[in-house]
């Protein structure tokens, strides 16, 4: 659990940092956001409304967690080559491999998240 918590918060940190770097202010993109992206954006902003020291402690907690995050970044560099090479087929192969990994959980997640998306879209319609 502690490794996954660090990974989740680090991913949110990356998302928020990238939006800031690109000067993509949330108020400017909310009107164009799907309910799913709106929810993701809200969760990202939520983290940054809290104590940075807490999140630094979570993300940088120990050598094992930092090692996992470095592996995560190395994996991103590997996947970035698909984008650099405009390799549509490699993207599709990786997508299918991930779909196989998630298997039955993906369908369950689609159903359960569908409810959340519906409720969120009702709220902001």
UniProtKB/TrEMBL annotation:
Keywords: Oxidoreductase. Pfam families: PDH_C (PF20463). Residues 2-94 form the Prephenate dehydrogenase dimerization domain. GO terms for biological process: tyrosine biosynthetic process. GO terms for molecular function: NAD+ binding; prephenate dehydrogenase (NAD+) activity. InterPro entries: 6-PGluconate_DH-like_C_sf, PDH_C, Preph/Arog_dehydrog. Transmembrane segments: none annotated. This is Bifunctional chorismate mutase/prephenate dehydrogenase. It comes from mine drainage metagenome.
